[in-house]
Design brief:
Chains A, B: Pfam families: Semialdhyde_dh, Semialdhyde_dhC. The structure is a homodimer of 352-residue chains. With 352 residues, the first copy, chain A, is α/β, with parallel strands linked by helices. In chain A, 31% of the residues lie in helices and 22% in strands.
Amino acid sequence: MSRPTLALIGATGAVGTVMRELVSTREDIWGEIRLVASARSAGKVLQVRGEDVVVQALAPEVFDGVDIAIFDVPDEVSAEWVPIAAERGAIAIDKSGTFRMEPDVPLVVPEVNPLDARDRPRNIISTPNCTTLSMMAAIGALHAEYTLKELVVASYQAVSGAGVAGPARLYDEIEALAGDRSVGQAAGDVRKALANKLDADSPFPAPIAFNVVPWAGSYKDGGWASEELKLRNESRKILGIPDLKVSATCVRVPVITTHSLAVHARFEREITVADAHRILEAAPTVVLMDDPANGVWPTPVDVVGTDPTYIGRIRQAVDFPNTLDMFVCGDNLRKGAALNAAEIAELVATEL
Amino acid sequence: MSRPTLALIGATGAVGTVMRELVSTREDIWGEIRLVASARSAGKVLQVRGEDVVVQALAPEVFDGVDIAIFDVPDEVSAEWVPIAAERGAIAIDKSGTFRMEPDVPLVVPEVNPLDARDRPRNIISTPNCTTLSMMAAIGALHAEYTLKELVVASYQAVSGAGVAGPARLYDEIEALAGDRSVGQAAGDVRKALANKLDADSPFPAPIAFNVVPWAGSYKDGGWASEELKLRNESRKILGIPDLKVSATCVRVPVITTHSLAVHARFEREITVADAHRILEAAPTVVLMDDPANGVWPTPVDVVGTDPTYIGRIRQAVDFPNTLDMFVCGDNLRKGAALNAAEIAELVATEL
């Protein structure tokens, strides 16, 4: 058959940039690749597979003849345009939160639940939130053999999770504060120094340089941040455990890209560190870095820009039965976003 | 009676500097205040209570006539010198890890277990690790009414927890990297940029700018970091719960001063957010900042340099009975170190 046509919607954003790099460097199974963005970006010329491609404005006609459309756009844009793409015959792979929890839309991580991608009555497949995705390949591998019961997660989320404005703001703040070796030592001094040099317009609700900010997403009932509930609800759906117990606290940290998570995971039966090592060493998209006596564990600056999910600091919880404590890192723009969508597209393309 | 004589051992370090500020600004109950440090720092002139004081070299004679000696020195220095101070008649308040878990040495947080300070057969009182202390005033208040059963903690620890070399290194790394708006986007690029500009001698086992590092302390059996086991064992002793279940993952973050902790705490009976608010609002050394709908929660840049323990993001865990998720911040040099020692000294001084 002819090679499938791929459309990338939101091609100019942080994730879109990584997506263009991925389709240019992974095995090339695609026929035409269309780049689509808002009217503001239409007409721009961007490179894909070494060739110049003119960005088209989002319109119903751009989906004509498209086999697979990957959407990386805000929730409200997905809500409007994903059904239009699906109606016009494209399989829509959507990175937004809009359809993830709908019962007739599968939520897919190819290493964990690839078969779910086949059951897509609306021709829509969702890809999870970047925080959920940053741990899922590793947690899914452990679950497959030991059956997960509970997750308590604290996140260390990179600024690029907030889009291109996130790194821009952190670089701005670092430049504004660098050279002052007294800053960060008195209450409010970072705020004051930033107010003198930068405008107040930040994607973050507090200074992010020399700080950590315990908030990601929008306000939900009970004091939860939307990102924390996504991690709970999406983990349940991907793993197929409707009664999985999950508590998460999401915290933004001054890291450019790569989300990290401290994970406390209880399983149905006893699991040792050696058991976990055996499973994770065999998991094809997971890299085990777990030799703390020799300083070996993953950190964001060593993970960023790479595809796997990294895991280390695996300990059997002394006081909790059947429980491991772990530290997981994943590039939130790659496996956490563009890569997972590309992998779903490749998975679905094999059926076409 | 005459005012007690106080000796500060380790007066020139990061905590010693805060200690001198505290005894200079809190209610002045002291007679003579002696400053003591290593031979290398002896002869330096430092200010206390607005007066110049010459630093004395550590020697048995410096304890003659001393009522209370506060030690902020490395473990091995405490091991040698704390017993000498106690033998010479001083009550030794020790910030090191050396004596904390010894059964005949009380481990004291004045808000939580003040009476323990009275039972000190060796004339030694230990003050906890800064990570444990950063949450203990708040957790202790909740425990007093609802009885704590389990703690799962992930930390966001400031660089000054590693001593004066910690902030110096973070400022160095920030200065070396500031201005390069591509750094932090490819695996190893931060390491490479730092290797070109700074020497390899860091108090941290990985880059700390644009990074988080899942390691604090020394290697212990089972893959644990010493800081994680301290949090477990010290919490049990301070709270008087020998079978408290604790799992902790300790992570260093690029914050100058103020440790933060994501705390998942199970109690003996149901506790609502309103219950927690009532208790924490009444706790004299705790500041409740918990109105997330209006962006109110604590962050390190607003807490640093102040005395209280700050708490926010209090949520009733949806899936876990009797459990709260919370975010706690405390200045690791003040309540986490110097302030707690000063408060113990003041508590003990009232008995003299």
